[in-house]
Amino acid sequence: MAAADGTVDDAAVPAGQPAKAGPAWWYPYALIAPAMITFVIISLVPFIYTIFISFHEMKFARLGDFAGFDNYTALLTDSRFWNSMKIAGIFVAIAVPLEFMLGLLGALLLNRPLYGRSILVPFLFIPSMMAPIVVGLLWKIMLAGSWGLLSTNIIEPLGLIGDSSIFASPNLALYALIFVDVWQWTPFMMLAFYAGLQALPVNPYRAAAVDGASPLQSFIRLTLPMLAPLLVVIGLLRLIDAFKVFDSIFVLTGGGPGTSTEMPSVLAYKMTFEFWNLGEASALAVIVWLIFFAFCNVFYQLAKRKLNAF
Amino acid sequence: MVSISSRRRRTGSALGLAFVLCAGPAAADWSYKTAAEPYQGVTIRVLDEITPLQETLATLVPQFTEETGIEVDYELLNHFEVINKGQADLLSGRGYYDAIMLHGFQLGPMLSAEVLRPIDDLLADEALQSPEFDAADMIEPAYSTTAAFGDKRYGLINWNYNQIYWARKDLFENPDEMAAFKDKYGYELAPPETFTQLRDIAEFFTRPAGTTLAGETLDSDFYGIVMEGVKGGSTFLSLWGNFIKSYGGDIVDADGKPTFDSPENIEAIVAWADLWQFAPPGMAEYSLLDVPTVMGNGIAAQAIAWSDFVLGIDQPGAAPYAGKFIYAGMPHKEGMEAERSVEGETSVTAISVHSEHPEATFLFLQWLAERRQQEALLEAGNGGVPIRNSSWALPVMQEGELAGLFSAMEDSLKVIVAKPKMPDFYELYDVLTGISQEIGLGALTPEEGAAKAQAAMLDICETCLLD
Amino acid sequence: MSASSPDGPSPLRKLAWTVGAVLIAVLILFPVVWMGLMMIKPTDAMFARPTVWLFTPTLEHFDYVVERGFHVYLLTSLVLGAVSTLLVVIIGTPAAYAFARFEMRFRDDLFLFILATRMAPPVCLVIPYYLIFAKLGLLDTFLGLTLAYMTFNLSFYIWVLRSFCRDLPVELEEAAMLEGWSRLAVFRRVVFPLLRNGIIATSVLCFIFAWNEFLFAFMLGGKNVHTLPVAIPTLITAQGVRWGEMAVVGMVALTPVMLAVFLLQRHIVRGLTMGAVKG
Prior knowledge:
The complex is a heterotrimer. Chain A is an all-alpha fold. Helix content of chain A is 70%, strand content 0%.
């Protein structure tokens, strides 16, 4: 291991360009083939089936008549669907940047000289290791109106939120769920970024130190650009996942009060497991997929050109 | 195995008369062992909901295998999962489970999907019929309204979940509180007979921190009542079954047409929404997790709750206020005692159309519902929700710690009927629970809410009953 | 902020950073500590008002958990998580490397296709999966769930690992090639060791996704393949939540993952600052 480290230290030009000594043309395809075949079998086939269902009537699990775009029209004219998209938009727009920034700060902190770092890392990572349903229950225990630990000891004696409880308030419930999401996923971002920091080559920093660059300067000039690919990828993946959050909402608010926390996944859950309207649920899957596909395409091109992230 | 069983059935119906003639003597030496002879070694899979009751029941199941040689894979899942997984199994045609526990409200959607096997032929099959079963002993109208639809029966009832009135005995028996109550309202403090009394008591016991309750100074707010208020759960079921129907209203008429904005309904919703001011401010987030916790930790004076909730709280060591409770049947509207209605979720275990062993499964379900097993279940002391009238006379029901609870259950079960069979139950419920929560929170007036609910119902179904 | 100068940190500064980090950790982990206490708290003291801080510990919650066989679920989760993660590493590593290193026709499109496989909400897909699995007899099988877990983990792995691959110095590979090493030898003996940081970190994250996954495990699993996250909701019954047992399961479920992170991170740490100090 020490030898490997030594070699990395010696040759430290951030790469990313195709190798000059070109391999046989089929070599890269052979490398990706197992993965692509797996994707076709386990993801593409079921997804095509889902698209197929979305063009049919499918109440309960029986495939009915061809329905054209009926499921899509039903969904797109449903104000609840748009409401859920709006809520998901707010959720993602607040939660992901917060997780991103706090995660990065945490990773930089972990990267400082610390005693007992090897103990600290697993402990700080705990929230992300917990099953989402346990996280939901844990925050119920903390914040439930009239019996939650923080409610009875801090929030209610101080009269912080007046005549309601956090998850019963249409104004607060969504932000409380965002808080829970941030609590749960910031450590995840932190660990990913921390690993990224650890993998950065060392030589550029030596050079910067010789030039007398301040830590802030070397962070902006070296760390950020070199870490950019990882930051972008982790951020994007978290964004996609945050959009699909379900368990904590299910435990804490059930989508209420009213429809104030009814995210698309909550709606999709109802369509699937309660209404068994699989045609419309599939249409929802396809629409969400399309939105992300468009978004990721644009994002990918942008990140590729501006940040050289891909 | 299958061919043998179907042959038996055919013989049974073809030689109907002969069988009736032999029924008497045959019944005398009927036993599960002989009835199960053709199904020796068969494994049936049964899915049920997990609570301490079913966990107790699970300990009885091996006896059935011992008696019959039929193996039973008895699987327990949580409330939501038993619904999701059970329905997925039925609807997809996978047919992994032979029988699945279905709450009354699930029957409308499942019957409309035609995935439940009628059991009339099994009930009529002399070879399968246990002389001990005694259908007349089943609690009515719960059994028939749940299991029967049209001229067919689907499954035997096995869980009579029901709501009851739950209150703090120590408060109701405190002399100071009793005197103060009588001064203020002009009648004795006791479990309420009517909704007006329920409201009076809720108002009376709602006190801010710093005031006294039963002679002690409160260090945090105390509330007059707690009910479920979360979106989903059984928030609307409680409003519908206990209030709306007791006020003479309903959400559909006899033809299944939505009647949500009727004057009776609005009056009932007003009474229900009025109670929210005496409830903890967080009631809109309260689900079945919270109501028992609030009662068990002395945060509210009364509750309308599922009687089986109580079993997790009112036991030594289960909660600080265990042993300090009193139970009663549900209040009714003044002058309308005859209309009294109580919310209940009577549940059957129904046989899947995909089951390859309906006879063996039927034997198991019949065995479970029999008096011996029901008595063993109740006598295990983990509580229970009786399905048989004879169960009420058991010593454990009459003299045990929870005798008061069982008597309240008995009172509720006198009037509990199953949910009407509605194919779109879930769509309706989803809309109605959201609207009732908004009414409770004051975001909608009862009139606005009723109008909105009516429109939403009409949007889902013009006639909402299965025909 | 100028702590990490090449002169190396003074013990005092190091102590200050450590104290700060520990304080943050304590604040974040307070709810978890509370849950830890619930493991040994008598049921009637669980949510009593005023809050009970001191109590006689009890082990009753552990009894139920063991009796119900939660250790079997834990083992299932461990094996399933480990096997599916291992498969993802084997299949995903060459792909991530190829996407980072080589020109390919439609490279960007293929790469985006990979991400596209995880864009739709799983709750909409789980019934189609259920129907397909039912037809193929994959429901409630180890293989079925392993495949299902790869749907979300393989894409994650390839995308994240690819950004680690970009940091690999291409010169080393070229040098090895000039030595006459085969492509395979280069991949195995140069690329793989250099990627270890990334592989370990990314596979830990994948393992966690598998470890906590609920929806697929619940719908596509069953009595034979019963994972821990699926067992947890059975503690929430209509008679209330078995809070103490929930705390036990929640906390015990942390230990194998924490242990894994603790052991594996030693392979990740190749400190920036350490390197700078050496320089």
